[in-house]
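Why do we care about 3D structure at all? Because function follows from shape, and shape follows, mostly, from sequence. That is the central idea of this module. The next example makes it concrete: a single protein chain, its amino acid sequence, and then its structure expressed as tokens.
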Amino acid sequence: MKIQHDGHDEEGIGISVYDENDFRHTIEISWDGEVSFHGTDDYPHRREDRTDEEQRIMTQVEARARFAAQQEFPEADILSPMWRPEHIKAGIEAFSNYPMEEFLEDFREYYDALRNPMQYIDDSPVNEESIIINLAVHFDDGEVLEVSDVVIDYKLTDGSEHRIGSPPSYPNKELIFAMPELEFADGFEYEEEFADVIMSHLMAQIRDIYLNMGEDPPAEYRVEGIGKLNIVGDGIGAT
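And the structure:
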């Protein structure tokens, strides 16, 4: 998609996005990341009148506009940190300096929960497909400083939402890991292979930031694996 910056004021940033059909969308983004205006005459104005494909384009255009606004004003909080590639890249750098012995100790519970989250859930009946296993890592200046306890989100079959554990708050200096239950191959070696699973998850999150806005990821991030849990397009998430 082509981008044009249309100026800014105390209320927000103006961005024009030319979509895959070369149609222009005029977008106004407030400084907190909300889309306050999305103008186009090439698609129906009401969501209920659009096809799924038209809605995908409209949603990806807004994601692309937010991304462009964040790039133009990197000190603003338009996107949350985990939707900024440079933030995740900084976290990957911190992991490259993370002593393996510390990693293996700090991430063992997360691995165990990914393998069998039901061992932590004393509730029923659980919709097992709803289970998400979370972990947060505090980092700064190329160094991992702290690893949180595991937090598990799940739903019962009646749709009610539940959580085990409390997520910490490491403002603007955290990596968030969120994955469903994983099936590890027979013979999987935690000590030898789990660090690659974690690194792939981080790189796949960068991949999905681009896919979410209808862009091809940079070549180094075209990886396999679980990234964002809900993105627009690519057959994943809401459209």
